[in-house]
Design brief:
- Helices cover 72% and strands 5% of the residues.
- A hairpin with a 5-residue loop joins strand 1 and strand 2.
- The chain is elongated and about 70 Å long.
- The protein is mostly helical and 257 residues long.
- A 3-stranded antiparallel β-sheet has the order 1-2-3.
Amino acid sequence: MNNQLIIVEEKINLSRGYTHFRVLDRIGALYLVLDSNFEDMKKAYEVESSEAIILRNKQRQTLFNFLSSTYAYGEQLKVLVNSYYGGEKLETEYTKKVEELSHDGLYSFVKYFRNYHTHSIIPLLYTSIEPDGRMRYYVGKNKLYEFKTWSRASRDFFESFREDQIEVLPIFDEYMSKVKTFVEWLVEEIISDYDSEIEEYLKLVDRHNRITGNFKDFKNRWKKGERNLEIMLYSELQRKMQNNVEYSYQIGLGKDY
């Protein structure tokens, strides 16, 4: 192998920029799992009344999967940030954001509703039929009170509803909107804080491509990550890559690909 190529590949795999790309890809994968489970759950619940009884087990399964993935998403994000950015400004900012979310009533409610659902009892969701035959799903406050370990924010949230029955799907919708905003913030924070390291990494990849001239293989491999890119909303990173299309081949490099 060309000695120059060996040196460049070693620099690529040891570069901090490569680490940032791996982290960004994993953030995207985590969000993809959560979002897919959310969409599956919505599909199972957004049915006409004639189908609801048939799909009852599917509804329970998809609700369980969605709530479980909310926990996995949060825990694995924490591991990623602590493992790769421990003691750095990003970890400090991330911890502040997570602390803010812990005081957000709706966000906290979904977290503790997951705990109730997983560790205590699967709460019965009551239904009502709309004039168009669609179903709406509610959880009774009396059932929520059976769970004793709500956080203050989550308890205040469900107690703020005047009605005895609380419709759950709109709450999950808003929760996912908050998650998306948080993921956008985290991705942009990584790109902004480590811009020079990412730039240096992209330059190394460009150099690698020029030495090998082997663009096709890298491009095909890069396509495997397109779903994650769309989800992660790499606005700044996409701009850089669009300015020099060769940069977009870099995910074809590295041990994990």
